[in-house]
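Risk register update: the risk of archive-format incompatibility is retired. Evidence:
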Amino acid sequence: MTARTTPEPEPAAPDFTLITGLSGAGRSEAAKCLEDLGYFVVDNLPPSLIGKMAELVATAGEPRKVAIVADARGGVFFTDLAQALTDLRKQKVAYRILFLEAGDQDLVNRFEATRRRHPLAPADRVVEGIRKERMMMETLRGDADLIIDSSGLTPHELRERVREAFAGGSPEEGLQVALVSFGYKFGIPRDADLVLDVRFLPNPYWVDKLRALPGTDGKVVTYVKSQKAYGEFMKRLRALLEYTVPGYVSEGKSYLTIAIGCTGGRHRSVVVADELESWFRKRGMRVGVKHRDLERP
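Archived output:
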């Protein structure tokens, strides 16, 4: 009688991440974070060699997770990158694009603090180099799976954002949702895929006993949720998400950032974001929430 042998499990497919974005927006910090998460990180590998790297990984079996840092300084960058991503798809290698960006003033401040020259403006004003790079990178930004706006973030906070996004697993493991409450007077988050404006709801700020309380306080939550417009809005919003989220998943989208805004980002948007977090969790989805402007005066 011949003993049965248990077949060896198929090795996990290589996981490729392209780290790109604006100079000064945090590519290096993101790379360090992914390295800590077990990624093999290659800095500024020519795009034409990405396919060769995938072949090597597939043949050798290691490393399983690779992150490649790339910028737009090369003259043939976009042509070579498009071909490299096409090659990865042909090899059925899962990949995702992480795009780092920040506001102009943040970028200018960082270059001034480090006394570095902008790579696209060696003899010009930093702001001009930023403008050129934004134009060059616009198409790639549109193809990104995940955009992280590092404006106002410390290096530690940026690494935490990257860790939250990537520690959960590979792109095949489902949609990861990030909820961000914000105040319109401080600007709309640049990395939002979907922006919800809840300024139509009655504002607790105009209620004296609620003005100083945060949107996480039970009294504020009760006030906002007791409004007739709130219940109808959430009903329609849940219906919208029930319709659209499965479509994002079927299209292979790995990340979805939903920004919810009110005037100051301290009351109404916080309440809505927290309820949405609970709604997504009840459906077994990976979700995180950040109240961007909750502590602002």
